Amino acid sequence: MNIHVEKDVKTFKDRQLLVRLLSYAKPYWRMVLFCIFLSFLIVVADLARPYLIKVAIDGHINGLHKPMLSAEASRSELFEAYGSVTEWNGKAYVRLEPEEAEAAAAAMPAGTEKAQIVRIEGKDWLVAGWLREGQEQAAITEEGDRPAIRAAGATLSAEPLDSTAMETFRSQDYTGFFLLGAVFLTAVVGAALLSYLQSNLLQYIGQTIIFNIREQLFHHLSRMSMSYFDRNPVGRLVVRVTQDTESLNQLYSQVVVNLIKDVIVLIGIVVVMLQLSVELALLSFTVLPFLAVLTFWYRSVIRDAQRRTRALLSRLNSFLAENLSGIRITQLFVREERQGQQFDQHNTEHYQAGMRGTVINSIFQPAIGLLGNLAIALLLWYGGASVIDGEITFGIVYAFTHYVRQFFQPLMSLAEKYNQIQTAMVGAERIFDMLDEKPAIVDSAQPKKLPQKIRGEIAFEHVWFAYNEGEWVLKDVSFTIEPGQTVAFVGATGAGKSSIIQLINRFYDIQKGSIKLDGIDIRELPLDDLRRAISIVQQDVFLFTGDIASNIRLNQEDITDEQVVEAARMVHMDDYIRALPSGYKTMLGERGINLSLGQRQLLSFARAIAFRPQILILDEATSNIDTETELVVQDALHNISAGRTTLIVAHRLSTIQHADQIIVMHKGKVREIGNHYQLLAQRGYYYRLYELQYKEQKPMPKAR
Fold first, then answer.
1. CB burial class (10 A; 0-12, 13-18, 19+) of residue 400?
2. Neighbours of 217 (CB within 10 A)
3. Strands lying side by side in the sheet with 123-127
4. Helix (H, G, I), strand (E, B) or coil at 138
5. Coil, strand, or helix at residue 62?
6. Domain spanning 14-47+191-436: which superfamily?
7. Residue-wise pLDDT tens digits, 328-355
8. What's the per-residue H, E or C state across 550-618?
9. Which of 357, 276, 266 lies closest to 310, judged by CA?
10. Distance between CA 564 and CA 547 in Å, rounded?
11. For 143-178, what is each residue's pLDDT tens digit?
């Protein structure tokens, strides 16, 4: 089995994922609602801008030539309901919207007159009547001794307007431009400030949620059994805790609230467009069926692409982490080229999967833009003709082009948002797949309390154990270790010695039989209590990045500096540590790389001693120590094992001859039990092992 090939991740329904993801945001629901409220205000400000420009065009840039009503200046209060009133030459004038002009004129009392400003042959005229839009160009004529305007067979009296008169009629436009500009600026600045506030709140929510999820994942992983880590390489788990959680950050800090904002934008634009012109709005919406088909296609393909990309990234990281950890072996056996080829294969597959997602996005986003431009083209065709025919104003067409662009902007960003959503969904699947996998080793439903001071009796009763089903590593193993005894396990490689140590710590559970500590089945004991009573020194020493003192006490606050020094002194490391420039504060590199193998082993001895265990286990603990240092350690072991149950796994029989009892293992079974001299006297399996290690060597040939 290739450990880098990731097992199929459990798939979830979108609804299940969303419910679980939103549960993490529940503590921050007030902030989320406030951000949605801010989104509503931002949308209002954004939608107001094109409308303000439309008002400026129709109401003020082209407003001078709108139909007007006039009356004596003393009767100006008649027009206050219709807007700003301009007084000129003893009369009051008010502008009317073309579509409401006739109704307003009919509702006015006697004494009001129609009026309109027109520009003919480069000169402005005040006409006593209305000229309908879209008619042929009017002409200047005379009626009696006064000028008149002839248009569509009708002659209307007219009065030329000089620059002073035009300034008077334009004054409300200047005021309107100032007010509209102030409102426009307020909308822009307000939207920017609200967006800044919203962005900070969303980032806080997103980062806090991701922090909590990572904490949950880390604590969950720390409780998983060893069999889980046997199946999952470190690189894969690192990707789950870092990159998969980071993919959720975009979901919480940007996508969710901004998606709601986009929905508000779309609804708001639809309402405004229908209010301005139903015909133009329906014309703009003719491209929506094509958009629906495009979105359905995109949704069906992008998620699979994201799943494959994340799985291949996990495999790439696993391979990379393993090879960087074993770089010395790679260089020692000249495997650089072969490992490079394997990395190139993994990297190429990840690259190709990523490019597939890129191609899908590169199709979707331009297609959305094309549909948006098609809608604008339809607007220009139909709306332009309607402006010429006088059915709608230029300002409405201008506003529609802006609203159509605003309508398609969130749709164009949908590719990115949907990509982020699918990335988050895939990441969520992988995270929840990890969280849903329960630890194989858990506390009993009704655990028995372990006494603070245990005796240290260990009993194996007919124990059967296999890492993989049917492949028995231990077969009907039974023995008893009395409190305070020093017991050694010997045997060939694969005999099951280290498996016994793993089982005592309950890193794995047995399939048959029982293991008891002081007469209590260890499956009935709380894991923390069990492991707190045991210290183990292994052949493969793991040191954390940090100083020497923290590696001895492992951040256990109740272990004092004096106890740390005493532990180092007992294994004869104190003098060496004090000779270092920073003493016990000397920083160690990754895995203690700046120490020799023997020094790392001695440091692990000091760690075990500092915790003052009631049971001490040495699993090939002296294999990396030279003979001279081994004698020093053996002397220390006599001191620290006094009054403690001590278990030793060793290949070198010289290190266990002092043991009270030696258990000889062979092919998963207990073959012999006794002390060193008893086993030699039996002339059995132990005798043969001893003979192989200590048989007389032939003398070396003399130098010639």
1. buried
2. 19
3. 85-88, 91-95, 67-72, 113-120, 123-127, 154-160, 146-151, 139-143
4. coil
5. coil
6. ABC transporter type 1, transmembrane domain (1.20.1560.10)
7. 677 766 777 888 888 888 889 888 888 8
8. HHHHCCCCCCCHHHHHHHHHHCCCHHHHHHCCCHHHCEECHHHCCCCHHHHHHHHHHHHHHCCCCEEEE
9. 357
10. 12
11. 666 788 777 667 788 888 888 888 888 888 888 889
Task: Quickly tell me which residue has 């902007």 as its tokens.
Answer: 409
pLDDT band at residue 11, thresholds of 50, 70 and 90?
Answer: low
Cβ contact 539:623 at 8 Å: yes
HEC secondary structure over 522-543? HHHCCHHHHHHCEEEEECCCCC
Q: Do 454-533+613-690 and 14-47+191-436 have the same topology in CATH?
A: no
pLDDT higher at 522 or 632: 522
pTM of the model: 0.69
pLDDT tens per residue across span 33-77:
998 899 889 989 988 888 888 888 888 888 888 888 888 888 888
Domain 454-533+613-690 belongs in CATH node 1.20.1740.10: no
Instruction: Give the CATH number of domain 541-612.
Output: 3.40.50.300
Q: From 623, 615, 619, select the one nearest 649 (Cα to Cα).
A: 619
The vertex-163 CA angle with 158 and 168, nearest 5°, equals 85
Q: Distance between CA atoms of 686 and 704, rounded to whole angstroms?
A: 40
Contact 152, 47 (CB under 8 A): no
The arithmetic mean of pLDDT across residues 181-201, rounded, is: 92
Paired residues of 512 in beta bridges = 464
Of the candidates 392, 402, 400, 405, which has an alpha carbon nearest to the alpha carbon of residue 62?
392
**Inter-residue contact 191 to 178 (CB < 8 Å):** no
SS (H, E, C) 250-289: HHHHHHHHHHHHHHHHHHHHHHHHHHHCHHHHHHHHHHHH
Domain definitions of the chain by residue range: 14-47+191-436, 58-173, 454-533+613-690, 541-612
Do 406 and 265 meet the contact criterion of CB atoms below 8 Å apart?
yes
Residue pair 428/20 in contact by the 8 Å Cβ criterion:
yes
Which of 5-44 are b and which e, b meaning 16 or more Cβ less than 10 Å from the residue's Cβ? ebeebeebeeeebbeebeebbeebeebbeebeebbeebbe
For the record, the structure tokens of 223 come out as 């409780």
Q: Which residues partner with 86 through β-bridges? A: 93
Q: Which amino acid is at 649?
A: V
